[in-house]
Specification:
123 residues; mainly alpha; 5 helices; 80% helix; elongated
């Protein structure tokens, strides 16, 4: 039982990290010190997708699920849970494109913010 609860907790932590990767720019708007952490998280997320790596949280969750007798899934975290939500296979290429788009949009926002802040401080 405890292994299953621990696996669920790790899945929630993983989901929170992914939410931060996608929406962390909202924190960066009001708290500039979040920007560096968000940029690092986004870069890590893109690297995971581009190089087909598994996040360490995926390994931990799979280990805990196996110990709980639940079995574990073979695909990456995002693909596994996204497939369960929308019941379609998500090709890795789509995940890579999505990661790059998220990185690009958020980076564009940060570049715009830094330029605006620089103008406000020098003007």
């Amino acid at each position: 039982m405890w292994y299953g609860l621990a696996a669920d907790f790790i899945a929630l932590v993983h989901l929170a990290f992914l939410t931060f990767v996608v929406l962390g720019v909202l924190l960066g708007r009001r708290h500039p010190w979040w920007r560096l952490a968000h940029l690092a998280a986004m870069a890590y997320g893109v690297l995971i997708e581009v190089f087909y790596w598994y996040c360490p949280l995926t390994y931990i969750e799979q280990y805990l699920r196996e110990r709980a007798g639940e079995g574990y899934y073979a695909e990456p975290f995002i693909a596994h849970y996204l497939n369960r939500i929308i019941y379609v296979d998500v090709p890795q290429e789509i995940l890579i494109v999505a990661a790059i788009v998220i990185l690009s949009v958020n980076s564009g926002f940060y570049i715009h913010s830094w330029r605006r802040e620089k103008l406000l401080h020098t003007g």
